[in-house]
Design brief:
Blueprint lengths: L3 H14 L4 E2 L2 E2 L3 H19 L8 H24 L1 H4 L7 E2 L17 E2 L9 H24 L5 H24 L8 H22 L11 H10 L7 H25 L12 H21 L7 H8 L12 H8 L1 H7 L1 H11 L5 H4 L8 H18 L6 H25 L5 H10 L12 H11 L3 H23 L5 H10 L5 H9 L4 H7 L5
Parallel strand pairs: 3-4
Antiparallel strand pairs: 1-2
Amino acid sequence: MSAYADLLRLFADWRRFQLPPLVDGVPDYGPAAMAAQHRELRGYQERLAAIDPSPWPIPQQVDYHVVRAEMNGLDFDHRVLRPWANDPAFYVTIFPSESDQPAREGHYARGSLELWQHAMPPDAVRAAAIVAGLRAIPPLLAEARRNLVGTGRDLWIHGARRVRGQIVDLERLDARLSSAGPPGLRSDLERARAATEAFVGWLDAEAPARTGPGGIGIANYDWYLRHVQLLPYTWRDVGALMERELARAWSSLAWEESRNAGEPPDAPISDPTEYAVRAQQAVTDYLAFLRDRDLLTIHDDMDAALRARVGAYTPAPREFFVEIDHHDPMVMRTHGYHWFDKVQMANRPHPSPVRRGPLLYNIFVTRTEGHATGWEEMMLHAGMFDARPRSRELVWVLLAQRGARAIGDLRMHARQASLEEAAAFTSAHTPRGWLSLAGRLVRAEQHLYLRQPAYGTSYLTGKIQIERLLADRRRQLGSAFTFKRFMAEFDAAGQIPISLIRWELTGELGDDLREVLSPHPA
C-alpha cells in the first residue's frame, strides 16, 4: 500500500528536478537541456502514477492531485507554451516591486532579482545578492538570443516592451545606489543595462520576421484548464460564463446608477493629503467592519499588511484600478485579501509541505484571484457599502472589467483576436472609459494573459467556483453555517486550485471533479 510519506519524498525530489540546470550560475534553457528535462519528467510522472492515494484522507489525496497538476504544468510548458523559446519577456529578471500573488504572475527564468527585498543602500550580504543577479543578466540574454525561435508576433512585440522596462528599472536602481556603494556593483549594473539594451535592439531587428499567432488554440486551452488548473470547464464553457458575468455586471451597474440618481456625484479624490487620510481610514473601517460583523478572524499582522500597500495619490489621468481607488479607497481594500493570504503563508504556513509555499505554474490563481474578486462582491452583499451607495457602483464596474478582459484572454488564445483587438474590446466594454487605450494597463494585462493562459479568466472562474462552494457549505451546515466558520475553513485549506478546496471542505467528489481528477492519456 502506498504511504503519504512516499508522496512527500517524491514532492521534494520533484521540486528539485523542475528547476533548470545551472551553468556557471546561469539557468540553461537551451534545446538540449530542455529536451532532457522533458524526457526525464516522464519518470517523475510514472513514480506519481505508481502511488495509489485512494485509501488516504481527503486532504492527503488533495496534495497528490496538487503534485500531479504541477507535473502537468511542466509538461504543458514543454509541449505547448515553451516560454524560453517563444516569449522574450521570460528573460526579464529585475522586479522592483512585490507581487500580490504567492509567486510572480507568468513565466520567468530562474534567478530573478526581487529588488523590493533589498533595502538601500544594501549591506554586504544584500549587495552580494544584487551583484549575483546583475552578473547573470548578460549571459542569460546572450542565451536568450539562441533560444528564442518563436514566431508569435504579439508575444514578441509586447515582450520587447517588457524588456525595455528592465532598462528603466536598472536606471532607477542606479539612481538609488550611493556613490559609496559596494565596489564593483555599479560596473555590474552598467554591464547588465548595456546587455539589456543590446537585447532590445536584437528583438527589434528580429521583429519583422515574427508574424505568427501567439495564442495556444482551443484544444490546448481545454487541456490546460482541465489538467493544470483542474477546472471542470472547456474554453466554450468559460466563454459562456464570462459573457454572463459581463452582462450581469453592466445590468447591475445600470440598476445601481438608477437607484442612486438622487445621490451626490461620484467625484474622485483630488488632493494628496485627503487621499492619504482616507486611504488609511479605509483600512481601519474595513477591518472594523469584518470584526464587528464577525465575518473573519482578524490576526494582528493583517492591519499592517494592508496599510503598507495603500499607495499614494496619483493625479489624473489615472489607470483603471487607481481610478477606482481614488473614488473610494475602501473598495480596493477588499481585493487586498491577497495581502492577508501572503501574511498567512509567511506567518501561519500550512502544515503540509505540498501547500506550504507557492504552487508552481500559477496553479493558485483560481483561489487567489478568484477569491479576491469574489470578496469584493461578497462585501457589497454583506452591507459594507450600504452607507456609500456610489461605491456599490464601483464593485460592478470592477466586475465588468474582469469579464471584458477575460473574453480578451479567450479570444487571443482561440486565435480569433490579436492582442490589440483584445485590448480594444476590453477597453470598450469597461464602464466609464476608465480602462483607456491611451494607458499601459489594458495591453499589459492582455500580454500577461497571452503569456499565461487562463490567468485572465481565473478571476471569474475562481469566483464562480467559490460561490458554488459557499452554497454547498450553506446547504451542508444549515443553521450552523456562519461566514466566519466558512472563511476559517477556506483559508485553512491553503492556496491551491479552488476545485480541490471544494472537495476537501465538502467531502463531495462530484462527477465533474471526478472527471477532472481522473488520469489523462499521455
